[in-house]
Write a structure and sequence with these properties.
By secondary structure, the protein is α+β, with helices and mostly antiparallel strands. Helices cover 31% and strands 28% of the residues. A hairpin with a 5-residue loop joins strand 5 and strand 6. Helix 6 packs antiparallel against helix 7. The N terminus is likely disordered.
Length: 417
């Protein structure tokens, strides 16, 4: 009896240990949302970015608070002149996150905004915009507790607005707006993914360039990243349930030719009447989602390109896509023209030199004199044509050498596409 009891205790202890080890594995791979900024764009024409900043540090404990910033986003059909006239913004709550609470990582579905006008100390009108975010079947209502106003005594003698007055004014002149887009801005503080699946989005155009899509896995959290945006991936993640990293640090459990389809929640741009780019989004496509079959919103076919630990090894286009997107366009144009013009110019100069020798009638004497110049020009033309290949091979050798800061060298192949 005693032996059975001891074995039972040992079995319970082992089960508890396995349970807690399993918890540690999940926690270790989770995405650190303290390193993630969330951008929420609403139909009011505002992009609200929420991030976490250090508020204070007590002993070894660091306390964080949410920080929100609004910029005007030029949505098609939205008049932003109203919001530009207000002198300040007050956020009753946050579209994502809350102070010291990192449980909610998605943008709220609704925004209610309204304006309150008051006199400042100099007797001038001052307008303040109030913003309140929420989920549900409709936008949240302004409540008296959302505002700070004059007491009844102060209102009686000065006429200053009470909290109820402000609530009514903001409600009457305000509006309700839907979420149209969500984007994650992932910093280094977010941690390293357990593994990354890199998919190839082949171009339909013969002269077009292929794009690459990354599915980054942090424990039970999936992010999908393209050159346009990164979002939380929720629909279709069961497709990756059998994938794991083995003892050889290899990603296994997925077919080498795995094919999926994704939607297109990116912005499409057009030029408005003021010759300024304006943006629009497909209705209801807030985040990326995937399917194993084509149809409906799932229009883009992706084929697995590589599996790997960390970022994967697809061609790196960060230099052209993020670091200097506009400058890279000009550089690509200059490099493309130079790659054609320099060799052609060398050929023309060589032809002129040879023509002069022939016209002089003294080929045997003039050819040896001009031979070195002609060969030098031919070599320059050939070298210039192959300069991209030479430069990229040199950079690859530097990266593989393990030199200091070699990992910070960016891939420049996008400049020669």
């Amino acid at each position: 009896m005693k032996s059975i009891r001891n074995k039972t205790f040992i079995l319970i202890f082992l089960l508890m240990e396995i349970f807690f080890i399993g918890i540690d594995k999940v926690e270790a791979g989770n995405l650190n949302y303290l390193g993630v900024k969330v951008e929420c764009i609403y139909s009011d024409g505002g992009a609200y970015t929420v991030s976490n900043i250090v508020q204070k540090k007590v002993d070894s404990t660091i306390y964080y608070t949410s920080n929100i910033n609004r910029i005007t986003y030029n949505l098609v059909g939205v008049d932003n002149t109203k919001s530009a006239t207000t002198s300040s913004n007050i956020y009753i709550n946050y579209p994502a996150y809350d102070d010291f609470d990192l449980d909610d990582h998605k943008c709220s579905q609704w925004l209610r905004s309204g304006t309150v006008t008051e006199e400042d100390d100099d007797g001038n009108d001052k307008s303040t915009s109030y913003h309140k975010f929420g989920d549900g079947s409709e936008a949240p209502a302004f409540e008296e507790g959302d505002f700070t106003g004059a007491s009844w005594w102060n209102w009686f003698w000065t006429g200053n607005k009470t909290a109820a007055d402000k609530r009514n004014e903001a409600t009457n002149n305000g509006g309700t707006y839907r979420l149209v887009s969500e984007r994650y801005i992932v910093t280094e503080d977010a941690g390293t993914p357990d593994y990354t699946l890199t998919y190839k989005d082949a171009s339909d155009q013969a002269a077009g360039s292929d794009a690459y899509v990354y599915i980054m896995v942090y424990g039970d959290t999936y992010l999908l990243k393209t050159k346009d945006k990164t979002t939380l991936l929720e629909e279709g993640v069961d497709h990756f349930s059998g994938i794991y990293v083995n003892d050889q640090n290899e990603v296994v459990g997925i077919d080498n030719n795995d094919t999926i389809y994704i939607n297109s929640p990116e912005a499409s741009s057009s030029i408005d009447s003021s010759n300024v780019p304006a943006y629009s989004y497909k209705y209801g496509q807030i985040r990326y989602k995937i399917s194993t079959s084509k149809g409906g919103d799932y229009t883009r076919k992706l084929i697995l390109f590589n599996t790997g630990i960390g970022k994967g090894d697809a061609p790196d286009t960060e230099l052209c896509d993020s670091i200097m997107p506009e400058t890279s366009k000009i550089l690509k144009r200059i490099i493309g023209i130079a790659q054609i013009m320099v060799p052609v110019l060398m050929i023309i100069l060589c032809a002129i030199d040879i023509g002069r020798i022939v016209l002089s009638g003294n080929i045997e004497e003039d050819l040896p004199k001009q031979k070195k110049k002609i060969i030098t020009r031919i070599v320059i033309g050939v070298l210039f044509f192959f300069t991209p290949l030479i430069v990229m091979l040199t950079l690859d050798l530097m990266k593989d050498s393990g030199a200091v800061n070699a990992e910070d060298i960016k891939d420049i192949s996008c400049l020669f596409e």
